[in-house]
Design brief:
With about 140 residues, the chain is an alpha+beta fold. It is built from 3 helices and 6 strands. Helix 1 (about 65-75) crosses helix 2 (about 85-95). The radius of gyration is 14 Å and the shape is globular. About 20% of the residues are buried.
């Protein structure tokens, strides 16, 4: 297992809507902390899906195609991705907080203190393969 790559207790903002929680936090990518939006279900154990700042453009109707990443994320969250209402709600939640994601500052140095891990996490990325970590 690697070091912490995501700590949902260290967040700048969070909003709950449609049974989902969107939180502005930081994810460790290639050894660097990067701003991200973590999406979890409001009820049950946290199983986050992460939108790094570098991938925010995918959620734009103008230059991206948000329905595709939304359907993939809903599936990972255990929510029906074939229901157009669910897709719309997730896209709406993400885009409503996009300005906050873009405005996030670097991760503060005091955020290096971590609580004990509560879950093991496996990230699958089409470009970098699989990364395992404790959350």
């Amino acid at each position: 297992m690697e070091d912490h790559i995501l700590d949902l207790d260290k967040r700048l903002w969070a909003v709950t809507r449609y049974g989902l929680v969107a939180a502005g936090t930081w994810v460790k990518i290639d050894g660097r902390w990067r701003p991200c939006m973590a999406i979890t279900r409001a009820s049950g154990a946290p199983r986050p899906c992460v939108i790094p700042l570098e991938d925010a453009w995918r959620w734009s109707d103008t230059i991206g195609s948000p329905a595709e990443p939304a359907a993939k994320m809903l599936l990972k969250l255990g929510i029906d991705p074939f229901n157009p209402s669910n897709v719309f709600k997730l896209i709406n939640l993400v885009n409503d907080r996009m300005a906050d994601l873009i405005a996030m500052p670097p991760r503060p140095p005091d955020a290096e203190e971590h609580a004990e891990p509560v879950a093991d996490l496996t990230l699958r990325d089409e470009f970098n393969g699989t990364t395992e970590a404790s959350l």
